[in-house]
């Protein structure tokens, strides 16, 4: 395992950070039967001038500031199937429990769910390993968590966002319903969420992708609003099973949604339907709420399952990929309050 900070022969410290145009160090990728798996983006080394090893932390890695957004994406290979594993947590802003019960983790007899612990553990995990990535969606929960954090912790989160390792997706106060709400309410709750993100995280926190993965049905007006708000694309999950089947077998789970005939091309929105709801592939949920076996790579263990796990994952990827026409596919790694 490589260290996060090293010093070169001239006495400069280098910090293991994110991709940059001049980056020459190895990418964390695995080639397998023409597939390119990005476990968590790329790892490169950024020069950190004039600092001791103790002073080097993500807070000080100012060279990463301008590399949020698409700049921080792992480079893809046009000649391979690029598999993007996207760690996420779907945290309803009120469902079986109240918002505060969900946030604090109360009333566990109703549902084991505590969003504060998810955000705590995500930020710690991202801090420990710069290869890791995570997307944060619901700003109502992020706001409650942010208020509780120390200035040091807030600065760490800003650096994670500025370097693209923590990416805000959707970013509204909640993931709104699309059928019963009035468009004014949608705009209001997006305004509140996006304003909060902007006030706390700044420009790098601005979401570019819509993530309406759990509303039960989707409206054209929502696509138009996303487009008018400057979003570049949208993922959703729930649609009638017959339409999903039709789309999968006609290789059209991705489309350019024409949001409004009046606005024309200005309302177009690239839209992709998730293949596997928004869950991790069956057998590959390693959250505390799941019961899937971990990957056991000790050949001396009678529980050794490494080969089986790798082959199972690869076959899931191949199955999904046959339905999509591009060679970039998303694998969601997360679930409800996971
Ligand atoms: Zn939900």
UniProtKB/TrEMBL annotation:
Top-level taxon of origin: Eukaryota
Segment forming the signal sequence: none
Hydrolase listed as a keyword: yes
Domain Glycoside hydrolase family 38 N-terminal positions: 82-336
GO biological process, one term: mannose metabolic process
Keywords: Hydrolase
UniProt-listed SUPFAM superfamilies: Glycoside hydrolase/deacetylase
Gene3D superfamilies reported in the protein's UniProt record: Glycoside hydrolase 38, N terminal domain (3.20.110.10)
MF annotations from Gene Ontology: alpha-mannosidase activity
Any one Gene Ontology cellular component term annotated for this protein: lysosome
Name of the protein in question: Glycosyl hydrolases family 38 N-terminal domain
Organism of derivation: Popillia japonica (Japanese beetle)
């Amino acid at each position: 395992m490589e260290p996060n900070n090293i010093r070169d022969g001239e006495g400069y410290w280098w910090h293991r950070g994110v991709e940059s145009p001049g980056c020459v160090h190895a990418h964390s990728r695995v080639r397998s039967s023409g597939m390119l798996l990005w476990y968590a983006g790329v790892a490169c080394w950024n020069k950190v001038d004039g600092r001791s090893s103790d002073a080097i932390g993500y807070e000080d890695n100012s060279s990463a500031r301008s590399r949020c957004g698409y700049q921080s994406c792992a480079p893809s290979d046009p000649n391979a199937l690029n598999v993007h594993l996207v760690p996420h947590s779907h945290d309803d802003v009120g469902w079986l429990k109240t918002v505060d019960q969900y946030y604090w983790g109360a009333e566990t007899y109703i549902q084991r769910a505590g969003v504060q612990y998810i955000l705590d553990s995500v930020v710690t995990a991202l801090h420990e390993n710069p290869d890791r990535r995570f997307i944060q969606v619901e700003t109502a929960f992020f706001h409650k968590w942010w208020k509780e954090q120390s200035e040091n912790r807030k600065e760490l989160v800003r650096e994670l966002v500025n370097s693209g390792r923590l990416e805000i997706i959707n970013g509204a106060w909640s993931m709104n319903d699309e059928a019963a709400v009035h468009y004014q309410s949608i705009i209001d709750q997006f305004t509140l969420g996006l304003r909060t993100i902007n006030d706390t995280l700044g420009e790098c926190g601005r979401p570019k992708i819509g993530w309406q993965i759990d509303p039960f049905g989707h409206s054209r007006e929502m696509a138009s609003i996303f487009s008018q708000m400057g979003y570049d694309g949208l993922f959703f999950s729930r649609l009638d099973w017959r339409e999903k089947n039709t789309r999968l077998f006609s290789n059209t789970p991705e489309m350019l949604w024409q949001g409004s005939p009046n606005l024309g091309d200005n309302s177009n929105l690239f839209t992709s339907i998730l293949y596997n709801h928004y869950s991790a592939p069956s057998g590959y949920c390693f959250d505390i709420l799941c019961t899937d076996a971990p990957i056991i790579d000790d050949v001396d263990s009678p529980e050794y399952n490494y080969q089986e796990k790798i082959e199972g994952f690869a076959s899931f990827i191949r199955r999904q990929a046959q339905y999509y026409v591009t060679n970039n596919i998303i694998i969601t790694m997360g679930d409800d309050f996971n």
